[in-house]
Structure formats: structure tokens, C-alpha cells
Amino acid sequence: MEKAEQSSFCKLSFQLPLDSFLLDIHFSSNKKRIGILGASGSGKSMCLKSIAGIVTPKQGEILLGDSCLFSSSKKINLPPQKRRIGYLFQSYALFPHLTVWENIAIAMQGKENKESRSERIFDLLRKMELSGLEKRFPGELSGGQQQRVALARIFANEPKMILLDEPSMGLSPIYVNEIFSLIQMIHDSGVTVLLVEQNANKALMIADRAYVLETGVISLEGEAKALLADPKVREAYLSE
Predict the structure, then answer these.
(1) pLDDT in tens, 116-171
(2) Strand 76-77, strand 85-88: pairing
(3) Cα separation, 183 vs 163, whole angstroms
(4) 173 by DSSP, 3-state: which?
(5) How many helices (H) and strands (E) does the chain have?
(6) What count of other Cβ atoms lies within 10 Å of the Cβ of residue 60?
(7) Helices marked H in 130-194 — which ranges?
(8) Residue 179: how many CA atoms within 13 Å on its side-chain side?
(9) Are residues 165 and 87 in contact, defined by beta-carbon separation less than 8 angstroms?
């Protein structure tokens, strides 16, 4: 992937009422790989959905680089398609009736001529190690291959940030290692990555900065390597 030419500055400051608690997020970072850890139900996925524009916070602001994605005070709420945010869902959200090629191409409709679209899709297939699979349907692919198709579709839309929601969930160990190699590749492309992951050990090994979320609020934050060595984090999230 070519290096992205945008600021990696990310500022989140918003509140979102959930069923049993208030998701109250406040942090800013200029790191390219940001990890969010926490137990199931702590609000991690809802945080990503707020950034992506799938749900609307009650108040606050969400900034990415020099772009304001949401501001309750300024009455700004960019629709998801204008945020340039790539969201890798846990289910991958591929269209089952479309081929690999068509799933990727759908993200590029109206953006390039047919020839340049084809060149870009072939390039994405090669970089995602999907060459030769372009005529297959999602149901004919392994979980790891489906995930790479979903990532290729995200890259086709040239995002400023990619949100990864539990990317290792349900994958065999060999594919878990593969997805974290892909996260490294995303980082090398210059795109900011916000990673929500229950595999805390893997997440902290690859993230630059990390935040621990408990019942809607950030309870711990710091450089990922420091959190990896933190006894409280190790006891809560890294115990065997």
C-alpha cells in the first residue's frame, strides 16, 4: 500500500448512553496503532461504532487529523460514507452473492475509470495474497481469506483510519498470527489503526499506545509496552 498522507492525530471525547451504563470516552493520541482493551460488554465495540458514524453520541466531539467527524456543539455529524473510516466488522460483512472481485469493486463505484479500477483491484488482491481467488464467493473462502477480502475492500476506499473489531475472534491460531501480520502491513501503509481486541497480549505487542476500558470509562492508559508489563493489566487480561 502507498503511504497515506494525512495526520494520525486522533481525539475522542464523547458520551453515549448504553443500556446499563454511560460510555464516557476521552483521549487523544498521535500514534498510528492504538489498542483498546477490556472485558466483553465494556463498551469497546460501541466506541468504534461511534467513530464510524453508525451510532450517534449524546454529546462531545470526534476528531481525526484536521477533520471533525462529530461535534454536538457545532452540530456536525458526518455520515459514515464521508468519514473515510474503514470498519472491519467481526462478521466481515461481505456480500455472499458477490465474488471476491465484486466485493472489492463495490467500494470503488464512481471513483475511477474501469481500467484504473481493475489495476487497483489486482494490486489489492496481490498484496492481500488473494490472487487467483477473485472469482470465488465468500462462502468458498476460509475465515482468514474472508477477512483479507474485507480488508482489501476497506483499502479500496482509501481510508484515513481503519477500525478493527476483535479481528482474531473465531480464527484458528495460524490465522490469528496472520491477521496481526496484516495489522503490521496496515501500519506500514501509513493508515492509522484503532484495534479493539480481547487477545490483549497480541494487541499490546503490536499497538503503540493502549487504553483499558471498564464499564464505559478508561481505567488505564499508556504506552503499550508499559501496559504489557503492568501487573494489574497482566493479572486482569494476560493471565494464562
Answers:
(1) 889 999 999 998 889 999 999 999 998 888 988 999 999 888 898 999 988 877 77
(2) unpaired
(3) 11
(4) helix
(5) 8, 11
(6) 18
(7) 143-156, 173-188
(8) 29
(9) yes
